[in-house]
Amino acid sequence: MCTIKSDVLYSLTHEWFKVNGDDSITLGITDHAQMRLGDITQVCLPEVGQHFQMGDSCIVIKSCKAEVDILVPFTGKVLAVNSKVEGMPVMLNQQAFQQGWLIKLLPDNPVHSSMFLNADAYQALLETEID
C-alpha cells in the first residue's frame, strides 16, 4: 500500500505538487510511482533558472525497470533543484514525499488546484489502475 498525503496535489501521471507561500510549486514523484519504478539508479535534474513550457520534459529518472521523463504540467522557471537526489537517487525510494522532492518551479501564470487531483481523487485513480 502506498502513502497518499492530503497536503499535496497529484497528477494523473503520479507526480505530487505542493503550492508554497511564495507561489512556487515543489514537485516530486508519488510513492506509487517510486514503487512501480523499483530501485531508482539515476536522477537528471534541470538547471536552476531554466524555463520550461507546459509539457516539456524537465527531469529524467532511471531505475532498474525503466527510464521516465517527468513533464512540466505548466509553463514556468526552475527556482531550485534537490541536488541531494542526484547524488543519492535511492532517496526517492525511501522518502518520496520528504527529502525526495525534485524541483521548485515558479509558474508564469497562477496555477489553479483544479488542474490537479486532491488526495481522495488520487486514491480513486489508484484503485482504478491495474498493475
From TrEMBL:
Domain (Lipoyl-binding): residue spans on this chain: 24-106
PROSITE patterns per record: BIOTINYL_LIPOYL
A Pfam family this chain is assigned to: GCV_H
Keyword Ribosomal protein: no
Keyword entries, A-Z: Lipoyl
Entry's Gene Ontology cellular component terms: cytosol; glycine cleavage complex
The keyword Oxidoreductase is assigned to this record: no
A biological process term (GO) from this entry: protein lipoylation
NCBIfam families tied to this protein: PRK01202.1 (NF002270)
Matches recorded under PANTHER family: GLYCINE CLEAVAGE SYSTEM H PROTEIN, GLYCINE CLEAVAGE SYSTEM H PROTEIN-RELATED
Name under which the protein is recorded: Glycine cleavage system protein H
